[in-house]
């Protein structure tokens, strides 16, 4: 059965973390909307490890945002995907993002959060208290500051309606678990 899935992101979203879920959900026949601060073409980025101690960033492809956050009525959607990259760092300050994310938690709808997506939860500390999730390792202090348990022994973790993953190499297992929640 087809579901309506919302992806929230912005410029500097990790390319694989937005494209892979978007096309995988479309492949399964779901209706997918990408929302951002404004309805526009978004710039994606590619994060990878070269010979640095941290990741390097390169410019990726463009992808269309179909709606602005202000236009989104989260009650019209069955599930939420939050990709990583640098987008979560600034979109978390948007009150509409907070309104949207809070709806999915309170309605117990499926939520998929990968890599730096956990930064969004830092603006709503009550949502994750007592929960468990994983994220990019640099996000561990933020996750723990929220009163959540950071899961380090699995790169993909499911806690009720929340599927989380470390980063883009985990996309196949991440999407497999998220699609299970959508059924």
UniProtKB/TrEMBL annotation:
<dbReference type="InterPro" id="IPR006286">
    <property type="entry name" value="C56_PfpI-like"/>
</dbReference>
<dbReference type="Pfam" id="PF01965">
    <property type="entry name" value="DJ-1_PfpI"/>
</dbReference>
<keyword id="KW-0378">Hydrolase</keyword>
<protein>
    <submittedName>
        <fullName>Intracellular protease, PfpI</fullName>
    </submittedName>
</protein>
<keyword id="KW-0645">Protease</keyword>
<dbReference type="GO" id="GO:0006508">
    <property type="term" value="P:proteolysis"/>
</dbReference>
<dbReference type="InterPro" id="IPR029062">
    <property type="entry name" value="Class_I_gatase-like"/>
</dbReference>
<comment type="similarity">
    <text>Belongs to the peptidase C56 family.</text>
</comment>
<dbReference type="GO" id="GO:0008233">
    <property type="term" value="F:peptidase activity"/>
</dbReference>
<feature type="domain" description="DJ-1/PfpI">
    <location>
        <begin position="3"/>
        <end position="180"/>
    </location>
</feature>
<dbReference type="InterPro" id="IPR002818">
    <property type="entry name" value="DJ-1/PfpI"/>
</dbReference>
